[in-house]
Amino acid sequence: MGTAPLAVETAPAKINLALHVTGRRDNGYHEIESLFVFAEVADELHASLAEADLLTITGPFSQGLGDGSTNLVARAVAAFRTRWPDHVPHGLALELRKNIPIAAGLGGGSADAAAALRLMLRLGTGTIDNAALFELAVELGADVPACLISQPLLARGIGEIIAPLAQFPSCHIVLVNPLIGVSTADIFKRLNGYDNYPLPTLPSPMTRPAQLGIWLAETRNDLQPPAVKIVPEIGMLIERLAEAPGCMLARMSGSGATVFGLFGSNAQAHQAAHELRADLANYWVTAAPLIVP
Ligand SMILES: C[C@](O)(CO)[C@H](O)COP(=O)(O)OP(=O)(O)OC[C@H]1O[C@@H](n2ccc(N)nc2=O)[C@H](O)[C@@H]1O
Ligand SMILES: Nc1ncnc2c1ncn2[C@@H]1O[C@H](COP(=O)(O)OP(=O)(O)OP(=O)(O)O)[C@@H](O)[C@H]1O
After folding, report:
1. Do 81 and 143 fall into the same domain?
2. Average pLDDT over residues 107-130
3. Gene3D superfamilies under this entry (predicted)?
4. Does the annotation flag 110 for ligand binding?
5. What's the pLDDT tens digit per position in 227-243?
């Protein structure tokens, strides 16, 4: 039996239920308005003591993911140590259990970076300025600040201006990925327009899944059309999920290629996942509850 880890952080998958591209900055980044939620499907980061800092990667999606300085976990740890050199002593062995597909629109790498930052925060003794932590997070990736929160939120700016939602209806999600990686930068480059209308105002209070469904019907994912051109399977998956009994909305998350189906019922979500898995044996299919405040 191995020794118990010092600490474990989960890195939940991010889903953009709606994503409007509303502008473009001079540095090439795009302004977005997005409703972010997180599912109870997660990578895991296990920390234990070692002679020197070390990162190993295990799990179903570890293949092809470098454990060197380009890995977002290693980059997050290095950036944290540069900013706060004395907070956590050197000699940390991290095991990243990769359960979320890579380059899938589920923010896996961003979630891992955020989990690494939370871990560093927990393992140290001093106080860290929260605003400075969020500034460091956005330098690692536009999605990393949202992943630090990992609860339903509205994001603006390049995704870093965050407003967590105090309440959110209990929902279930089915995620389907054709195991075709998509580059986020490529999809943004292929956008035809980037001055789309902002998100409508969310109902308040929003307690029922049906209210969310009505609001979502007025929204889009502006990255979906360019992504469908590159990966036509996305269109087929949206049609399949939309037909499932109880599915309130089928759409692509982030820059793809993962497609989600949103359900009010756990049983209907699991039934849809079961049927898709039977037909699409080579795809990644999972059903999970959304994390709510
Ligand atoms: C599309 C989303 O997944 C929505 O949640 C995110 O905005 C992307 O977040 P991310 O993967 O953390 O993004 P980054 O690693 O910072 O950016 C990857 C690339 O996507 C493009 N990018 C990203 C975010 C954004 N608001 N505008 C962009 O144009 C840029 O070309 C950038 O070089
Ligand atoms: N720990 C990590 N997990 C996943 N990808 C990583 C990691 N570290 C670096 N990367 C690199 O980051 C890139 C994007 O991977 P990621 O899985 O975060 O994409 P994504 O789900 O499309 O993200 P987003 O939704 O934020 O655009 C990949 O090319 C991958 O090689």
Report:
1. yes
2. 95
3. 3.30.230.10, GHMP kinase, C-terminal domain
4. yes
5. 999 999 999 999 999 99
- Closest ligand 1 atom, CA of 19? 4
Specify which residues 57 forms β-bridges with: 96
Does a structural domain hold residue 1?
Answer: no
Verify that 157 and 174 share a domain, yes or no.
Answer: no
Average pLDDT over residues 247-261: 97
In the structure, what pLDDT confidence band is assigned to residue 123 with cuts at 50, 70 and 90? very high
Q: What is the C-alpha separation between 45 and 94, in angstroms, rounded?
A: 7
Residues 228 and 114 in one domain: no
Residue identifier of the C-alpha nearest atom 11 of ligand 2: 109
Q: Domain total for the chain? A: 2
Give the CATH number for residue 153: 3.30.230.10
Find the domain containing 251 and state its range. 166-289
From the list 86, 143, 189, 279, the catalytic residue is 143
> Could you report the per-residue pLDDT of 24-56, keeping only the tens digit for each?
999 999 999 999 999 999 999 999 999 999 999
Using CA atoms, how far residue 221 sits from 13, 28, 105, 151, 253, in Å, is: 17, 19, 12, 19, 8
Contact between residue 76 and residue 147 where contact means Cβ atoms under 8 Å apart: no
> How close is the Cα of 181 to the center of ligand 2, in Å?
10
> Can you tell me the ipTM of this complex?
0.96
In the listed set 162, 184, 217, which residue is the last one of a domain according to the structure?
162
Q: What is the CATH number of the domain that holds 204?
A: 3.30.70.890
